[in-house]
Design brief:
mainly beta
Length: 126
């Protein structure tokens, strides 16, 4: 079992930056593909970014490409989402997720993730 805890959310202004962290406990993350998803009020949860176990492969939603960067530090059992040039439309609850054990590739499909954190709120004011 993997427990995930996100942190780093908050209220910022348009153009600001935030770095989200996702700390894992229970098992090492080093063999898990990891993803970041987000859910805005009244909307479905959507893919934001994903990273393979080694960090060698990353995927981004078109809406965040060029502004967000996903990374990981397996020694610290932590995954990060650096968010720059934030926009009001980035306002959402952000969730990190881990794929099933043995699934070390990145995926944009939320149904391929077995473990989820509780989420952290990001609010971008205009």
């Amino acid at each position: 079992q993997v427990q995930l805890v996100e942190s780093g959310g908050g209220l910022v202004q348009t153009g600001d930056s935030l770095r989200l962290s996702c700390a894992a406990s229970g098992r090492t993350l080093s063999r898990y593909g990891m993803g970041w998803f987000r859910q805005a009020p009244g909307k479905e949860r959507e893919f934001a970014a994903a990273i393979s176990w080694s960090g060698g492969t990353t995927y981004y939603a078109d809406s965040v490409k060029g502004r967000f960067t996903v990374s990981r530090d397996n020694a610290k059992n932590t995954v990060y989402l650096q968010m720059n040039s934030l926009k009001p439309e980035d306002t959402a609850v952000y969730y990190c997720a881990a794929r099933n054990s043995g699934s070390n590739f990145a995926s944009i499909n939320q149904y391929q993730y077995a473990y989820w954190g509780q989420g952290t709120q990001v609010t971008v004011s205009s």
